Amino acid sequence: MKIEKADLSITLGVEEEFFLVDPDTRDMLADPDPQIFEHCQTRVGPHKVVPEFLRSQIETNTRVCRSVSGVRSSLRETRGLVIEAAERFGAEVLGASTHPFAKWTDQLTTPRQRYLDFEMTYQQAVRNFMVSGMHVHAGFGDKDARIRVMTALRRYLPVLLALSASSPFAQGRNTGYKSYRLCVVGALPRTSLPNALHSAADYEQLLATYQRMNFISDGSEIWWDIRPSQRYPTIELRICDLCTRLEDALCLVAWFACLVRRLLRQHYADELPEEPLTEIIAENRWVAQRYGVLAFLGGMAGSGRTDIADLVKQLIDNLSEEAEALGCEAELRHALDIVNYGSGADRQTDHYRLRLLEGDSEEQALRSVVDLILEDTRAGI
To answer: Model pTM greater than 0.85?
Structure first.
């Protein structure tokens, strides 16, 4: 079947959630100056800046982009905007999926009915919900194409998680996980991996069942690692931690875009690969969550386990045609740097151990980790 170029067009958009930090204590600001948000609203342009569940968080949404280079300029604008606004009104911006030592008992919920209802329903599971993430939207094809590609993408989610990992610490402890964020998110229902869906009708039937039983009001209350967006004609990648460095974030966007384009081509040619067992994808997900770029992942064909570094190299080769078409070869290959030199989680834990070896107390070492994250968040803006 001949595939026209228009069939493979992809739009992209990125949501990033940041913590607002006290410049002196390096702790999260439980009640930051509301002028931070007001300042952003007057200068946001085609993007969006919105509050999050905690008052100490701020979320940015880029404009709709038609290329990875467009996402690059957009992320520079959104990150630069919140950093400038925060510094103007007594805060700094921390780009990681957990704060190294902040306590949930000190936090305040944003006073919106949706968040108050959320806390009433989920209780302790959200009282300590001090996590931030990066969500990437890809718009392409029709509803059925998006569902089929979403299902085929599931096997790659562990690799994307490992490359993005930035949450090794929580409430003053080294958790032992590269992405502890997923442990927190997993306390909520309708999270983790979706089962294999093969058409828009499959998804709509599941959604209708949830609604008929009054479990949810709409699809925005399904928080899978990857899901159809409730508001936009997109598939939303949600598994990723918030990438501290801009270049790492762009790498994940490039990977998602290239994988979507490749799988979309296979969908049109009716050549999508056979679905692996959801249980094996879930096991790989946990291994990636625990070990990050040091993970050995199980083979999708039931074979043994493979070093994630070898998988990344293989996938870069397999996606070269897509990367060339999308103009993101450098961003795709940046994954090799993440594997070789570490993700945000690796930089944090390495820095923490170094500070302890050089005589810092645990408290001093954790404050120094915050300094590192703040510096990395500003890099490339």
So the answer is: yes
